[in-house]
Amino acid sequence: MSSNYEPLAPYPPGTSPLRGAMKDTFAYSTVKERLPVILTKCVDTLSRELHARTLAAPSSPADAEKAAEAKHIIAEISKLVYELQRDRPLQPLTDTEEDVGVWNATLASLAAKGPATWYQLPWLFIECYLYRKIHELFILTVHWKEYDIFATQQKETSFSGSVKSMEELAKHLRDVQTRTLNDDEQKTVLREFVHFCLWGNQTDLSLLQDVAHADMHKMQQTSAAGLKQLEEKVIVNDTQALLQEIEGITAGRVDIIMDNAGFELYSDLILADWLVHAGVAKLVVFHAKRIGWFVSDTTSRDFHWTLDAIQKHAKAIGDDNLDSRIERWRGLLAAGTWRLQVDPFWTLPYPFWQIPTAGAELYADICKSQLLIFKGDLNYRKCVYDLDWKTTTSVEDALGGLCDARTPPLVMLRTCKSDPAVGLRAGQAEELDRADPKWRVNGKWGMIQFRPRTQT
Ligand SMILES: O=P(O)(O)OC[C@@]1(O)O[C@H](CO)[C@@H](O)[C@@H]1O
Predict the structure, then answer these.
(1) How far, CA to CA in Å, does 57 sit from each of 37, 47, 65, 408?
(2) Sequential DSSP letters for 315-357
(3) Is residue 257 scored above 90 in pLDDT?
(4) Which atom of ligand 1 is closest in space to residue 295's alpha carbon?
(5) What single-letter DSSP state applies at residue 290?
(6) 375, 201 contact by CB (below 8 A)
(7) Which of 126, 202, 204 to mutate to test the pocket of ligand 1 (most atoms within 8 A of CB)?
(8) CA–CA separation, 56 and 361 (whole Å)
(9) For 73-96, what is each residue's pLDDT tens digit?
(10) CA–CA separation, 198 vs 412, rounded Å?
(11) Greatest extent of the chain over all pairs of C-alpha atoms, in Å
(12) What average pLDDT does this structure show over 9-35?
């Protein structure tokens, strides 16, 4: 990581970052309602750990220390809730991880421009900071360093809600891989897997705090008929252009900048499997998060945990197809056809406009790719810098520094779960407002937004 701390990229004239203080935005309801709920759930999780088995009545000095550390973290998270709700200033980080300098320099440069509080600072910054701060509370301990507060209570328990969908998609993949398909059929199948991958982004645990895991299957798309019904919900649909781009790739490299673990990760793996099977990719690079991020984002631990959990489930119910699918995926990883990569840049405060500069090493690497697939809403926000864009802004303008001539073709697959939306035609946002006033944020609408390589 560069030790030159860049300030955040300047905002283009006429735009400003979304902030919690903007009352009619999703940013406001997130800061006011959703973030305190997420933090409170962390406190619950840790309290449960504390009252379980050995920690309730510690019988060794190590357990006593572990219990004391958990109490300290609980107190610190409760303090965060208090400060957030009272719109207090954010405090610099105090741990010694390599990225601390970037966080503190960014916070200092924002503080130099105005009040550095939870509602006044850019929403993107404070929300990312929150997850980095939670990480800090754990790594500053002796006994909880490796603990992922979101893993057991949320990512892992929600897994059971998705297994039925996973079985169905695995059957579908087997069916299309064992048939001889003509060109049109190949195209249809690719199209389906891209759309499954898009709608896989609906099951995001930071938004579904109240959804019973048993209800998750109902939300997950696993059939072509289901996809057809959703076609009209794809408000920017560059599928044709994307498929054309993919058709031009043979034995190339595709990068997936992943979002959520669980069913979304599974839908990414299904697409990646098809790309390898169809001869498009001889290398698929999966980019995971370094730390627990936005509740359900995929870490490398989640990635491996998911493969293990699916295989365990497949064996338990005697689903040989699903079992052998996981074996195939392990084989692809072992052979280096699939690569799991973790770069610290993805969990820094920078928007993706700054990958070419602040993430120069990462950028040099992803420029070897023939296609970048950015999954999910947060990646979308980072791609377009979470600014209050007019919806008719061109994708090129909104991608800013990512429209560098060296940047590979890229696609953003996202169900809409936050305010920013660009690349809409004139009048489209107004039509959507009439059809569904919550279209920007309720996850019922999707975007497949493609940008080819910049022509020089
Ligand atoms: O990236 P994802 O998982 O699709 O969505 C992340 C999300 O739930 O969290 C943020 C608000 O907390 C929003 O960007 C979005 O709604």
Answers:
(1) 29, 14, 12, 56
(2) HHHT-HHHHHHHHHHHHHHHHTSEEEEE-GGGGSS--GGGHHH
(3) yes
(4) 3
(5) S
(6) yes
(7) 204
(8) 46
(9) 999 999 999 999 999 999 999 999
(10) 9
(11) 69
(12) 96
Residues in the chain: 456
Banded model confidence at residue 155, pLDDT cuts 50, 70, 90: confident
Distance 264 CA to ligand 1 centre (A): 13
Model confidence at 405: pLDDT above 50? yes
Q: Does the CB atom of residue 265 touch ligand 1 within 6 A?
A: no
Confirm if 94 and 136 have CB atoms less than 8 A apart. Answer: yes
ipTM score above 0.85:
yes
351, 451, 358: which is closest to 405 by C-alpha? Answer: 451
Task: For ligand 1, say whether the CB of 203 is within 6 Å of any of its atoms.
Answer: no
Tokens standing for residue 283: 């290398």
CA of 71 to the centre of ligand 1 (A): 29
Backbone angles phi, psi at 351, to 5 degrees: -75, 165
Average pLDDT of the chain? 93
Residue of minimum CA distance from atom 5 in ligand 1: 377
Domains of the chain: 2-149 (1.20.930.60), 154-451 (3.40.50.10880)
Q: What CA–CA distance (Å, rounded) separates 329 from 311? A: 11
- Backbone torsions φ then ψ of 155, nearest 5 degrees: -65, -45
